[in-house]
């Protein structure tokens, strides 16, 4: 097996050899590039649009590639299991809370969509929280059931036993098996507007963390606003490296691409080396969108300073960032052009490139 630096350098050489400049699209406010929704309710959640994108790749993770159809069918099966477990014959939890602990992979999306399909409010948990904190979130949200990815079942078992809350592990088929249609799918005609959708807990800097409720209407408003402002397209491919228990990781980086039929490449956790390899590499689908928080940008720039020291490598990295990667979040910066590969404290916007539509 090759040492890690050699492997990284070979990947970089592969990227340099395969690099071709991509045409840029100028800014503008074109109509939303969306497929028709399967539900007439204007506040309906993202899963109601999934079948319109069918066999398009929705998610790429460490388990493989997952289509929109796969996500929908796996979620539908799980939602029926939730309703069966809680003995809700009508298939509607009426806003009961559904906590779930999953990795940054397909299991998270399936658990989230299943919570919504069953009429529940999704309460995402975080794998790095200690058991006492997980217990607090489950109890404070008054969750009726806890969903668990395969790797977290044993972690959660003593917690739910103490609270008397049922635990439902996600089936192994979620991770790598193409989903079959589970009978009648139906059209989700519910009054979504005022229904609770998600409870996200604050960081607890001034006391115990507090649960903040978002409705389906407010989430849809955020998603469609971001899709419009940032000109999301079904051809976009975003690299996702953020935690999924805060709004930025859930709404900006996951629900926005899934709303338009784009692709989300999801890493289990952040790694500066792996992010650079993904951004500069030869793999398809090719990443063209990236967003993160200042701490991550600082770590990426530190890795750049330590490892990309040769001038021709720096030129290549700069060219890829300018021509192929979109940095989200500052329309003014996109208008005045990219300030590539400068640290935030120097006034630059890392990985920023002008991009829009002709």
From TrEMBL:
AMP-dependent synthetase/ligase domain mapped to chain residues: 49-306
Organism expressing this protein natively: Ursus maritimus (Polar bear)
A GO cellular component annotation in the UniProt record: cytoplasm
Keyword Lipid metabolism in record: yes
Keywords recorded for this protein, A-Z: Ligase, Lipid metabolism
Name the record gives this protein: AMP-dependent synthetase/ligase domain-containing protein
One Pfam family per UniProt: AMP-binding
Signal peptide: none
GO MF assignments: medium-chain fatty acid-CoA ligase activity
Family according to the record: Belongs to the ATP-dependent AMP-binding enzyme family.
GO process annotations (BP): fatty acid metabolic process
Top-level taxonomic group: Eukaryota
């Amino acid at each position: 097996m090759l040492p890690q630096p050699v492997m990284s350098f070979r990947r970089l050489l592969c990227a340099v050899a395969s690099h071709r400049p991509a045409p840029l699209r100028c800014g503008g406010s074109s109509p939303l590039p969306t497929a028709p929704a399967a539900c007439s309710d204007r506040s309906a959640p993202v899963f109601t649009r999934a079948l319109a994108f069918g066999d398009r790749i929705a998610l790429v993770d460490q388990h493989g590639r997952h289509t929109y159809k796969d996500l929908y069918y796996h979620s539908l099966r799980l939602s029926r299991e939730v309703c069966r477990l809680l003995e809700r014959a009508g298939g509607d939890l009426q806003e009961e809370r559904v906590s779930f602990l999953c990795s940054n992979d397909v299991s998270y999306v399936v658990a989230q969509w299943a919570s919504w399909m069953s009429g529940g409010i999704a309460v995402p948990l975080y794998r790095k929280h200690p058991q006492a904190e997980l217990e607090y979130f489950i109890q404070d949200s008054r969750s009726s059931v806890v969903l668990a990815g395969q790797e977290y079942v044993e972690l959660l078992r003593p917690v739910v036993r103490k609270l008397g809350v049922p635990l439902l592990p996600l089936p192994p088929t979620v991770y790598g098996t193409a989903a079959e249609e589970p009978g009648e799918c139906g059209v989700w005609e519910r009054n979504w507007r005022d229904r609770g959708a998600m409870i996200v807990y604050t960081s607890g800097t001034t006391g115990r963390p507090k649960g903040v409720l978002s409705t389906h209407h407010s989430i849809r408003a955020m998603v469609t606003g971001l899709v419009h402002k940032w000109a999301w397209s079904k051809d976009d491919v975003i690299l996702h490296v953020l935690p999924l228990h805060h709004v930025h990781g859930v709404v900006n980086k996951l629900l926005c691409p899934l709303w338009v039929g784009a692709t989300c490449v999801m890493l289990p956790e952040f790694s500066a080396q792996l992010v650079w390899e993904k951004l500069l590499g030869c793999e398809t689908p090719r990443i063209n969108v990236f967003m993160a928080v200042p701490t991550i940008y600082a770590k990426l720039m530190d890795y750049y300073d330590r490892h990309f020291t040769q001038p021709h490598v720096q030129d290549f990295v700069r060219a890829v960032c300018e021509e192929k990667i979109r940095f989200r979040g500052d329309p003014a910066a996109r208008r005045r052009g990219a300030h590539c590969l400068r640290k935030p404290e120097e006034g630059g916007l890392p990985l920023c490139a002008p991009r829009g539509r002709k």
